[in-house]
Amino acid sequence: MSEVRDPIGRLHLVGYEKLTDHGLALPVFGRSPGANVFYTARSSEPGGAGGHIANFDHYDPDSLVPLPLEQIRETGVGEPWLDIFLWEDVAYVGSAPEIWHALAEMRERIAEHSPLSLLALAEGVDSAPDLQLVQKAFSWLTRRYGRQKAEEWRNDIYLRGIVLKSVRRELGAYTDKTDVRRALQEELTVRQDGHKIIIKLPLLNFEGLGSFFGRAVGLGLEPELAKVDNRTSENVMRIAALQVASSKTQGKSTTTEIKNEINQYLSLILQDLLPSKTRPNEAMYQQIVGNIVSHRASKNNIFAMGWATYTGDGIQITDAGRKYLRTLRLQS
User: For a tag site, which of 64, 204, 207, 301 has the least CB within 10 Å?
Assistant: First the structure.
């Protein structure tokens, strides 16, 4: 699947691929009802129901189920997200509120037999009683798989998912970056300690957790936020900058090269990857790299230590710099 970079105009929701026998399916789009080139939509709220269509991606379906003509819907970027919900071999098409309304007479039965599917749909409906559905889903999972598995779902999937969605809303398109998604996946953790539910959130400033706290309390838990206020130190960044320069011909590297390649020599954490407050087009780690090069008057930088010289648009590592890397066993 690859991103559609050129505007493709309006598309039609022409069919779907089954993900399960019931619940949400994968909507598939084409330029016309008889299209043979297909697309999937990307949501403005990744990982969540609702939102709007943010973009389309080329897609090659394995087993496309076409919709009848009366259910085909025309849509485009910026319009409400469209879902397909399967129940008892019937496909319900529309926005989450439209499908929720269409399922009115069946919702109680779905909640009893497939609460997870109904909960996924309810996330896109403001008026849906999702807390009641969570409790039903928890009871259903407990009966089927035991309390431990039910708690793992509630904590690691449901509550952690709420935090992830809040972070995505806060950071916007920044969370589309591969390294940011990876860092979020690795660093955002949830842990239960008795009745406490503790979220470890590696962000500098984040206040959009009202939904998480409300849901946790509603489920009989005591929510707690364990903030992590740290990022990769400037000293570690200096060493990595020297490594970038050392890899270049004559040991010279521009500031731009260092910014683009420094992640090959260290593991950047989420706070390194957040947008800079003073340079909106750069991540925090790129701003720090810029500071390393521009703050040449500092008494403890790589220039003062004799490890590098300034070239006008970057740095050149010195023999002393290479020796320093060897003492750290970072260069043979």
Answer: 207
pLDDT tens across 108-117, in order?
999 999 999 9
Contact (Cβ atoms closer than 8 angstroms) between residue 82 and residue 97:
no
Q: Are 53 and 43 in contact (CB under 8 A)?
A: yes
- Say if residue 80 is in the same domain as residue 57: yes
Q: Can you say how many angstroms the Cα of residue 3 is from the centroid of all Cα atoms in its chain?
A: 17
- Give the chain's mean pLDDT: 88
User: What residues make up the domain containing 317?
Assistant: 234-327
Looking at residue 277, which CATH number applies to its domain? 1.10.10
Q: What is the DSSP string of 142-193?
A: HHHH-HHHHHHIIIIIIIHHHHHHHHHHHHGGGGGSHHHHHHHHHH-EEEEE
Q: Residue 48: what pLDDT? A: 57
First-to-last C-alpha distance (Å) of the chain: 41
Question: What pLDDT is attached to residue 254?
Answer: 95
Whether residues 211 and 268 fall in one domain:
no
pTM for this one? 0.77
Q: Are residues 239 and 269 in the same domain?
A: yes
Q: What is the pLDDT, as a whole number, of residue 270?
A: 87
Helix (H) or strand (E) holding 218: helix 210-218
pLDDT tier at 131, thresholds 50, 70, 90: confident
Give CA–CA dist 155/191, Å, rounded: 8
Of 173, 155, 191, 231, nearest to 44 (Cα)? 173
* Cα–Cα dist 133/129, whole Å: 7
pLDDT tops 50 at residue 331: yes
Q: What is the pLDDT of residue 126?
A: 79
Q: Of 201, 227, 253, which residue constitutes the final position of a domain? A: 227
Is the distance from CB of 284 to CB of 296 less than 8 angstroms?
A: no
